[in-house]
Structures are given as C-alpha cells and as structure tokens.
UniProtKB/TrEMBL annotation:
<dbReference type="GO" id="GO:0015833">
    <property type="term" value="P:peptide transport"/>
</dbReference>
<dbReference type="Pfam" id="PF00496">
    <property type="entry name" value="SBP_bac_5"/>
</dbReference>
<feature type="signal peptide">
    <location>
        <begin position="1"/>
        <end position="23"/>
    </location>
</feature>
<dbReference type="GO" id="GO:1904680">
    <property type="term" value="F:peptide transmembrane transporter activity"/>
</dbReference>
<dbReference type="GO" id="GO:0042597">
    <property type="term" value="C:periplasmic space"/>
</dbReference>
<dbReference type="InterPro" id="IPR039424">
    <property type="entry name" value="SBP_5"/>
</dbReference>
<dbReference type="InterPro" id="IPR030678">
    <property type="entry name" value="Peptide/Ni-bd"/>
</dbReference>
<dbReference type="GO" id="GO:0043190">
    <property type="term" value="C:ATP-binding cassette (ABC) transporter complex"/>
</dbReference>
<protein>
    <recommendedName>
        <fullName>Solute-binding protein family 5 domain-containing protein</fullName>
    </recommendedName>
</protein>
<keyword id="KW-0732">Signal</keyword>
<dbReference type="InterPro" id="IPR000914">
    <property type="entry name" value="SBP_5_dom"/>
</dbReference>
<feature type="domain" description="Solute-binding protein family 5">
    <location>
        <begin position="117"/>
        <end position="503"/>
    </location>
</feature>
Length: 587
C-alpha cells in the first residue's frame, strides 16, 4: 500500500466544550445544495442514511484522513488539530456526541445518563459513570480522571506547569473543585459567578490518571512539573488505553493507525474487526485509490472541481458534497505597524469582495455558496443570527467606500500609492499555503483588491507543516483560514478574541471585547448567552479584526459497498462519530 505523506493542510483545534479547529484553506465548496450518489436519503434521515442493519465487519476497512496529526493529545495547543481529534476518536472518553440532525446523546460507555445540573450557585454538574465502562485495561473511570483533566486545562501553574500548553482555559480555569459523591458519581463544581448554558457538553475526561502514574508520574496531583511531564508524555505516546470502541494496536504520529475492537467496550458494536487509518495529502490521489479499491473511504475538506467531475462518472464509488461545520475567514494582524490603525483595517475589510472570492473559488462547485455574515451563528440559524458584517460594509468590495474611510482618517495617495497621515507608504503581506488552488486564487484576488486601494500588497507562501507556527507567531499581516466546530457557541468568542487567548492569532487587545466575551459566562440562559455572543460579534466587527468569508464543504467519498458511514457536519469528528457502526454491505 502506497502512503502519501506530504501534507497539504494543517489544522489545530480549540475550544473546551465545543471542539473547534482551524485549518488552512485549500480547495472546496460551501454550504448549499449538495451533490451526491448513494446518500440521497440523508436529507430526510440524516442519522440513519446509508444504513444496512445486516452489515458485516469481517473485511478490513482502510480510511484516509486528508491531513496529518502531530500528537495524541486533546489538550496541547501545539499537537491538537482537527485530524488529531479524528485520529484519537476511536479511543477517546467522549461523554456525548452530536448527531447529524443536530441532537446530542450521551455516550453510554462512559455515562449511564446525560450530565445533569445540581446547582446554579455555584454551577455544579453531576456525572453518573458507567461502572462497566473504563479505560480498556480493567480500570474503571474515576474522580481522579476528572481531576487530571481539570489540571490539564486549568492554565494554573500551581496545578500544571507550562508543559500542559492548553489550547484554551475556558473550562479548566473556571473549575473550583471535583467531588466524588460516591463510587460512580462525580460532581464538577465551578467557581462562584461562572455560568454557561452549555455545561452539559464540557470535555471533562481526556487521559487516564492511573496510566499517568504507571508511566512514572505518581505525583501528578501534587507536583505541577510531574503533571506537565505526564501530559507531554501522553501527547507523544501512542495510546495504550481505550475508552472507545477500538484500541490502537500500532500507529505512527501523522502517518497511520491500526485499530482492532476494544473488548471492554460496553456500547453497540464495534462491527469492523480491523480498520486502518492513513494520512494522504492529495484529493485526486485519494479518489484514485478509492476507485482502485486500495482505500475505502475519506472525507475531504478540499478538492478541485475536476475531482467532482471524476466522481460523477465513477460508478464504483458513492459520494456526497455537503455543507460542513467549518467556515472560512480573513484575519488581520492588528499589531502590524499599519494595521494598528482601525481606519485602515476597516478599509481593508471593506475593499475585499467576498462574493467575488466565492464565485472564483468554492462557488465553482456549490452554486448556493454565500457570504457568511456572523462570526458565531450560521446564516441559517433563525434563532440567533444577526448580520453585523454587511451592516458595516465589510466584504462588499466597495473601493470607493474604502477610499473614503481612509481620506476621512487623513490618508493620501501619491502616484496611486497609499500613504499614512505621516506620509509612510502602506505595505501589507498576505500569507498563503504553498499548495491549494483556491487558496492561491484567494490570495491573488485579495492582492488585487489591496493594490486598487493603493496598498503595496505582496503574497508570501508558507509550507503547510508551518501553518500552526505561522498562526502561533502571528507571522502574517492578512491570512485566510477556517474554524470548525459544532452547535455549541459559548466558548468560541473567548477562545478566538480574548486578549490573553492563545487562539487570538491576530493579537486583538480590546478590553471592551474581553468584557463582552466574559459576560457570556455569567448566564445559564441560552437566549441571553446568544445575545451576549452577538454583542461580542458586533464589537469585533467594530474593531475590524476578522472578516467571515463563507461556510465550507465536506466531500465524502466511499467504496460503493461501504455502509453505515455518513457525513456529520455538526462536529469536526464528521464521519468518525459512529466509527463503531462502519461495515460492509450484506448484499
């Protein structure tokens, strides 16, 4: 089996309750009318389409992840990415799942019932552990596992040193205590004043505390250095535990994983007796190998239009092109010497023509693609979506309006070169991944918009393996990438925009925005939290920091005989949410 190991795209996840990831933008479509073969019933029955009740699991399934993963940790900002989450899903202690229809169910292997609220003052949530469930080695879940997870996410140097590197501290920093009520009942007690309507979905388990001790970190609970070293060890060690339907028998970071059933799994299935997960980098190669039968399926966040044309004539495969959980956006580095000026930022976001970008890229495969007009809520969210973006004129491509903004702020032009009020020529650099046709087209379009504004605009590429570093070090003036997520929303504004967040890649520093995102965690009422999230969106638009582009697509391609596999665009787990059901057609 030939394995392609050059990477087309990197991605990193963030958010404590809502696992939200970022990815570099390559090729693709966006939310809208879907193209498919073999998945026609998914519109009417998204939870059960492509279903065969008599499916078999005796033949190995080879599945491709269209990117790599850089570790085995859900926590670390450097190792956690969208692909990491998929890679560890078969063994991960998930407390619940988002289903394709947007409903949420608890994981019966971990919990006997859904988490439930004990108190709002302080916020206290009860978890009833399944006494038959556990870590796949005869060890049941315990309160220590909850405590280990709390320390890992805390951001508190008294609990875990800098080696923990949590990608967000929204959950961990707000936990006050973990209480073992009885052998199989655990309470998570939050600090006074902290509230969230999404308490049910918190990530309260990640790694097994007993295994940390077996690895030689017996003092993790009392020594923050030992705690940090233990988490670093988990990040670099192929999981020997399993709280999911499969166990990993062999694997190499960013390359491949071999799975076999976890005999201690208490949920349904698993059906397939052997699954191999591989990392491959090129959509055309992936489709070719699926057609040849050496690979059996993949869900891809990028592709060229030619791939769709190939699939339409390839009767040996089924495919579905549907709106995904990701959304693309332009982020400005507000600490750049020129972009520190709010007026210039407004002009830049105004002169970018989002509809034109869509028409030249993802719109080529999805006619219904449209500009996204809220940073938190999708355009089709009738309950909470408010269009703040178009109201501000951002994404309109209105060069005259952008020039007027600059003129009012004291900017001038000399031979069509934009000058600051101090007479300095304005120059900006757009960063783009070295591969991906849509990414390159987007970069060239933005460059032309900026040139029309009088900006000395350049394009600089980065190697795909350097994507995380490019964001972490804010090595850009303007960049386009995408976040992926779930129906949860409360944590995202804090993670993306708070001044001290490690995921605030454009370095926005606004006390007003900080106050607004913090206020989201002062109510347990969903409607009120949504209103506060929208207030934060409005403030971010006023800062001219991030310009949403559009929702992004997912292209699912499978062997025509592979069943019980379907898109789940409610979560970045996508097809992996029900990996225990995957199998082969009985017909």
């Amino acid at each position: 089996m030939k394995i392609h190991n050059k990477r087309l795209m990197a991605s990193v996840a963030m958010g404590a309750a809502a696992v939200m990831a970022f990815t570099a933008c390559g090729n693709g479509g966006t939310d809208g009318d879907s193209a498919s073969r073999g998945f026609e019933d998914c519109d009417d029955d998204p939870n059960n389409c492509n279903f065969d009740p008599n499916a078999t699991g005796d033949k190995e399934i080879v599945w491709v992840i269209d990117g790599d993963w850089s570790g085995w940790s859900e926590v670390h900002s450097e190792t956690m990415n969208n692909y990491t989450r998929q890679a560890i899903q078969p063994v991960f202690p998930t407390v619940g799942f988002w289903l394709p229809d947007g409903s949420w169910e608890h994981n019966p292997h971990v919990l006997t019932q859904e988490p439930h609220l004990v108190s709002e003052e302080p916020l206290t949530v009860e978890y009833n552990l399944n006494p038959e469930g556990g870590w796949g080695d005869g060890t049941p879940f315990s309160a220590d596992d909850f405590i280990y997870n709390w320390y890992a996410w805390s951001g508190d140097s008294d609990l875990c040193n800098e080696q923990c590197q949590p990608r967000t501290t929204v959950y961990g920093s707000n936990v006050a205590d973990i209480e073992e009520v009885d052998e199989n009942t655990v309470h998570v007690v939050y600090r006074d004043g902290y509230l969230t309507p999404e308490w049910k979905y918190a990530v309260v388990l990640t790694n097994p505390a007993h295994l940390a001790e077996q690895y030689g970190f017996e003092d993790w609970k009392s020594d923050p250095v030992a705690m940090g070293e233990s988490l670093e060890n988990f990040a670099g060690t192929v999981p020997e535990y399993s709280a999911g339907p499969y166990r990993i028998t062999d694997g190499v970071i960013g390359d491949y994983i071999m799975l076999e059933p976890n005999e201690e799994w208490t949920g349904d299935g698993p059906l397939a007796q052997s699954i191999r997960i591989e990392s491959m980098d090129d959509p055309e190669s992936i489709v070719t190998e699926i057609r040849q039968g050496s690979v059996h399926g993949a869900s891809m966040g990028r592709y060229d239009p030619e791939v769709i044309q190939t699939l339409e004539s390839a009767q040996e495969v089924n495919f579905a092109l549907t709106g995904g959980s990701a959304w693309r956006h332009f982020t400005l580095n507000v600490q750049n010497e020129f972009l520190r000026d709010e007026a210039l930022r407004h002009a830049v976001l105004t002169v970018i023509d989002v509809q034109h970008v869509i028409d030249r890229t993802i719109g080529l495969t999805f006619e219904a693609a449209e500009p996204k007009t809220n940073h938190v809520f999708r355009n089709d969210n009738d309950n909470y979506h408010v269009d703040y973006v178009a109201q501000a004129g951002h994404g309109s491509g209105d060069t005259a309006a952008a020039r007027e903004i600059l003129e009012d702020a004291g900017y001038t032009w000399e031979d069509d070169q934009l000058l600051t009020p101090d007479g300095v020529e304005v120059a900006l650099e757009y960063r783009v991944p070295s591969t991906g046709a849509d990414a390159q087209t987007t970069a060239e379009l933005v460059q032309q918009y900026l040139i029309d504004l009088g900006v000395d605009a350049s394009i600089s590429t980065y190697a795909v393996e350097d994507f995380s570093r490019t964001l972490d070090n804010a090595e850009f003036d303007i960049i386009n990438f995408q976040w992926t997520g779930s129906p949860e929303f409360a944590n995202n504004p804090s993670a993306q925009w708070r001044s001290d967040s490690t995921s605030n890649y454009g370095q926005l520093d606004s006390s007003a925005v900080d106050e607004l995102v913090d206020s989201i965690f002062e109510t347990a009422d969903m409607d009120e939290a949504a209103a506060r999230a929208n207030a934060a969106v409005e403030a971010v638009v006023a800062e001219a920091y991030v310009l949403p582009q559009s929702d992004s697509p997912e292209l699912l391609v499978i062997n025509e005989n592979l069943v019980n596999v379907r898109q789940n665009t409610q979560t970045n787990l996508n097809t992996f949410y029900n990996i225990h059901e995957w199998g082969w057609s009985s017909e």
